[in-house]
Design a protein that fits this description.
Length: 178
């Protein structure tokens, strides 16, 4: 149910942004909202809290995101008015996905035990670009020490696991079952 709501609202926001000729600005705003949600547990709790009044939530949103484009601000106000604030992060994520799809941008992440150099990131972008046949690949480096070494590349539902931890698991399974 929540994914249907997010998809519907995300699509509506994209159409609204097109009408207001503010697609780029709204995309930047939604990315900022997503970053805030990833870094602030309090923000997520506020959105999901049934105790906090809508007016108070709107006040907090205005303080946090006062620099947002008018289209973004009015859309967020609408979502709050409709009592759908619990879906706001999913709506923003859906909007960014639709925007990227429309612009031919592939968004992928690479998990590694240590930060990857710019050279390695550029090589990965080139490799993914050729494999996915998409010119513009946005790649995010996520640090995860459980990878031990190597890397795990994720794009939508695709996974390329070149990690040491996967190889160790495979060796363990071979030793146990052989």
């Amino acid at each position: 149910m929540s994914s249907r709501i997010a998809a519907r609202y995300g699509k509506s926001l994209l159409q609204f942004a097109h009408e207001k000729s503010a697609t780029e600005d709204v995309c930047g705003d939604m990315k900022t909202l997503l970053e805030t949600s990833q870094t602030s547990k309090e923000f997520n709790n506020l959105l999901k809290s049934p105790i906090v009044a809508t007016a108070e939530k709107q006040g907090v949103m205005n303080k946090l995101f006062g620099s947002f484009n008018e289209a973004s601000s009015s859309f967020i106000a609408l979502v709050l008015e409709k009592k759908r604030e619990g879906y706001l992060v999913d709506i923003a994520r859906q909007f960014v996905e639709l925007y990227n799809e429309e612009k031919g941008i592939a968004q992928a992440s690479v998990l590694s035990a240590i930060p990857l150099s710019d050279t390695v990131m550029d090589q990965l972008r080139g490799y993914l670009s050729s494999v996915l046949q998409i010119d513009n690949v946005e790649l995010e480096n996520v640090i995860d020490t459980s990878v031990i070494g190597g890397m795990v590349v994720r794009y939508k539902d695709r996974l390329l696991d070149m990690s040491v931890s996967r190889e160790l698991k495979e060796m363990r399974n071979q030793l146990i079952y052989n």
